[in-house]
Design goal:
The protein is α/β, with parallel strands linked by helices and 116 residues long. It has one domain: Glutaredoxin, CATH 3.40.30.10. The chain has 4 helices and 5 strands, in the order βαβαβαββα. The longest helix is centred in the middle third of the chain and has 16 residues. The radius of gyration is 13 Å and the shape is globular. The chain starts with 6 loop residues before the first strand and ends in a 5-residue tail after the last helix. The model has no long low-confidence stretch (mean pLDDT 93).
């Protein structure tokens, strides 16, 4: 479900890959059975390609990984969390987000990170 530019996050690597990242990280909380998650996937893949090196993008399967979703109160999916300096900087719920809206959110956080 992910392209080569999209990382796979797990309960085990979340601390190092997301919270310890030097660049902002967009985490897509999803599940294989979730139709809206599948609809959002191509947009997430596109963001990963476009912002490679400036933004880390990855997916976390809420069925396979339960500690991280519980910690961040993930009760509905798809849900995108943008982490910056180890903290949630932005949260987007649902699959009805246009590429332009996601671009604007990412650019806002990259500009304040000095990477845009």
């Amino acid at each position: 479900m992910a392209s080569n530019d999209v990382a796979t996050f797990t309960d085990d690597n979340f601390q190092a890959e997301v919270l310890g990242s030097q660049v902002p990280v967009l985490v897509d909380f999803w599940a294989a059975w979730c139709g809206p998650c599948k609809a959002l996937a191509p947009t997430v893949d596109q963001l990963a390609k476009e912002y490679k090196g400036k933004l880390k993008v990855g997916k976390l399967d809420v069925d396979a990984q339960q500690n991280v979703p519980q910690k961040y109160g993930i009760v509905s999916i798809p849900r995108l969390l943008l982490f910056k300096n180890g903290q949630v900087a932005e949260e987007l719920v649902g699959s009805n987000h246009s590429k332009a809206k996601l671009d604007a959110v990412v650019k806002k956080h990259l500009e304040t990170n000095g990477a845009a």
